[in-house]
Write a structure and sequence with these properties.
- This protein is an alpha+beta fold.
- It has 2 domains: about 160 residues, Ribosomal Protein S5, domain 2; about 120 residues, GHMP kinase, C-terminal domain (Alpha-Beta Plaits), CATH 3.30.70.890.
- Helix content is about 30%, strand content about 25%.
- It has 10 helices and 10 strands.
- The strands form 2 sheets. Strands 1, 2, 3, 4, 5 and 6 form a 6-stranded mixed sheet that branches. A 4-stranded antiparallel sheet has the order 8-9-7-10, covered by helices on one side.
- Strand 8 and strand 9 form a beta hairpin.
- Helix 1 runs parallel beside helix 2.
- The longest helix has 16 residues.
């Protein structure tokens, strides 16, 4: 084992990624879809801890740990191995990684990608390496289209296949209710069901919008994956209807589903709405949270 001194355990949040708007604007010859999406990150999510160890290890805990793979198919392990490949001399120290899985898997809120992004950041701390954010994004991109966004982990507009990122510095925090009806959705199936792939782009974002202005702007946008996802999983329509019935200023699906969100003007209203839906839908995953501002989203 190396005689080099390594920092102690690093613990980082892996926040839920919420697509406030998602427009599918085209498709490349290689099959990848082109998107324009406004993304925020929630104060709620998974958690990654990493520490020096005698041998490499990986464990998963939390309410959604069951069924999460702990082998090389997990993005957390793939992220560790990608960082080792990029910095072989600095990353020889074995590490133990633990994933606290609080988000439902495969639910359109970037759980696996956010886990991998937090792993990369945590391991950079453990191994005392300091790549720039742009370097870390380039290293992470082959692991998945959402990884660069999750490395940024702050309000942004992403274009192309998700790798062309424009930070949005002055977006207000938004109270959110998120609900997942527990019906699995296949992202490839949702894209296959798309009626068209050449939809219009996002309109220009207002300068320094307050919450009301932002919600008005969002009302003019859409998630182009929502209709095909509802066709594949009708429970999504029920989740949206329940959120609207609680008085949300806007209800929409995130990503390719099945998680839906509602925007509220007040955190107390979002919390009370989440309690009512949870009581009515005990089999659903429901949470009240809020989006993070750019200044609070950096890790």
């Amino acid at each position: 084992m190396s005689g080099r001194a390594f920092p102690a355990e690093r613990v980082l949040p892996a926040p839920a990624k919420i697509n406030l708007a998602l427009h599918v604007t085209g498709q490349r010859a290689d099959g990848y879809h082109l998107l324009e999406t406004l993304v925020v990150f929630a104060s709620f999510g998974d958690r990654i801890s990493a520490a020096p160890a005698q041998a490499d290890g990986f464990a998963v805990s939390g309410p959604f740990a069951a069924g999460v793979p702990v082998d090389g198919s997990n993005l957390v392990i793939r992220a560790r191995d990608a960082l080792r490949a990029a910095f072989p001399d600095a990353t020889r120290q074995p590490v133990h990684i633990e994933l606290g899985k609080n988000l439902p898997p495969s639910s359109g809120i970037g759980g696996g990608s956010s886990d991998a992004a937090a792993t990369l950041k945590a391991l950079c701390g453990v191994w005392a390496i300091d790549p720039s954010e742009a370097e870390l994004m380039r290293l992470a991109a082959p692991l998945g289209a959402d990884l660069p966004m999750c490395i940024a982990a702050r309000p942004l507009i992403a274009r192309g296949i998700g790798d062309d990122i424009e930070p949005v510095e002055l977006l207000p925090p938004l109270p959110l209710l998120v609900a997942n009806p527990g019906e699995p959705v296949s992202t490839p199936d949702v894209f296959r069901r798309l009626a068209r792939r050449d939809n219009g782009p996002l309109p220009p974002l207002p300068r320094q919008p307050d919450a009301g202005t932002l919600i008005d702007w969002l009302a003019e946008t859409r998630n182009d994956l929502e209709a095909p996802a509802i066709e594949a999983a009708p429970a999504i329509a029920e989740a949206l209807a329940d959120i609207r019935a609680q008085g949300a200023a806007l209800a929409r699906m995130s990503g390719s589903g099945a998680t839906c969100f509602g925007l509220f003007m007040d955190e107390a209203d979002a919390t009370e709405a989440a309690l009512r839906i949870r009581r009515a839908r005990p089999g659903w995953w429901v949470a009240a949270t809020h989006s993070m501002e750019a200044s609070h989203a950096r890790t």
